[in-house]
Amino acid sequence: MTGYTGPKHGPLYDMGALGFAPGEMVCVTGAASGIGKATAIGAAKAGLTVAVWDIDGPGAVATVDEIAAAGGKAIAVIVDVFDRQQVERAWRETLSLGPCHYLVNNAGPRSVSQGPFADRLLEAVGSMETVAKSWLSHCVGVAASLVNISSIAGNLQGSGKTVSAFYPAAKAAIAGLTRHMATRLGGMPRVNAVAPGITITPRIEPMLASPAMQDLAARVPVGRLGYPEDMAHAVLFLLSPAAAYINGVVLPVDGGVTLA
Ligand SMILES: NC(=O)c1ccc[n+]([C@@H]2O[C@H](COP(=O)([O-])OP(=O)(O)OC[C@H]3O[C@@H](n4cnc5c(N)ncnc54)[C@H](O)[C@@H]3O)[C@@H](O)[C@H]2O)c1
Q: Does residue 221 lie in a domain region?
């Protein structure tokens, strides 16, 4: 039996009709790769200026180049979101372009990362709180909407056999943080989360050769694994003014696998 041999990308639709205003800016963390990269490219396609934040400098520049080649506007910001001082410096660089209306907290450690539980947990969820809090302090009255990237792991799935313990714990904490911020901040900004199912990104690709992946894809009611573009569509919708009355949701984007 072979591993997963299907496509790795799906279509990326134009989300520009969802109410974003010309000249608005979004910051996407972890935008050199995978879900963050698809979201950054989708945001640029929708007319937003994009701050491409990543610890991987060449990868961030590659995303910016791809956006610029398609006629969009973006800036690469090299930052470790786990480092508070770097985050502050990254906001200064980003805001030199103007105010930042939207934030996508996407960067996070790999689900199989090893090391002390408390350190990895803090890296995964503490960094999201740090980036969001810092954004709010710099963009008072401008911040319109935030999407955190959680997971079905820890929320709708135990994931006991496949990932390190910190990962589901962190992703459940991100769901809790999302609901807390959504109510605490009174909708200014709105705060929601996307909980992806298994999504074909570079961090997942090494596992695609396993026959178990083909089995897993077949168990998803829509008959395939997720594409980064599937996640980007959900993120951009929740960010957008079209989702003005949606606040505090944790939206599974998993092809229905957690119901099957
Ligand atoms: N791929 C999946 O199946 C899946 C499922 C559920 C949730 N998620 C979540 O989606 C998010 C993105 O995952 P992906 O699959 O697109 O991964 P990916 O590895 O393709 O991309 C992650 C990006 O984040 C960057 N990054 C990592 N740590 C960073 C740090 N400290 N500071 C700045 N940048 C950093 C990496 O350099 C990379 O460019 C993660 O939060 C992940 O937990 C992914």
A: yes
Q: What number does the ligand 1 atom closest to the CA of 111 have?
A: 43
* pLDDT tens sequence for the chain (260 residues): 577 888 999 999 999 999 999 999 999 999 999 999 999 999 999 999 999 999 999 999 999 999 999 999 999 999 999 999 999 999 999 999 999 999 999 999 999 999 999 999 999 999 999 999 999 999 999 999 999 999 999 999 988 788 999 999 999 999 999 999 999 999 999 999 999 999 999 999 988 888 888 888 899 999 999 999 999 999 999 999 999 999 999 999 999 999 99
- Answer yes or no: is 147 within a domain: yes
State the residue range of the domain holding 228.
19-253
Domain count, the chain: 1
In a domain? residue 98: yes
Residue at 179 is within a domain: yes
Active site residue 167: yes
Instruction: Exactly one of 4, 13, 102, 167 is catalytic; name it.
Output: 167
Q: What is the CATH number of the domain that holds 62?
A: 3.40.50.720
Let me know: does 47 contact 16? Beta carbons within 8 Å: yes
CA of 110 to the centre of ligand 1 (A): 7
Is residue 237 a contact partner of residue 18, using CB atoms and an 8 Å limit?
yes
SS3 state of residue 217: helix
pTM of the prediction?
Answer: 0.97
CB neighbour list of residue 237: distance below 8 Å, 6 or more residues apart = 15, 18, 243
Residue with tokens 């050769």: 209
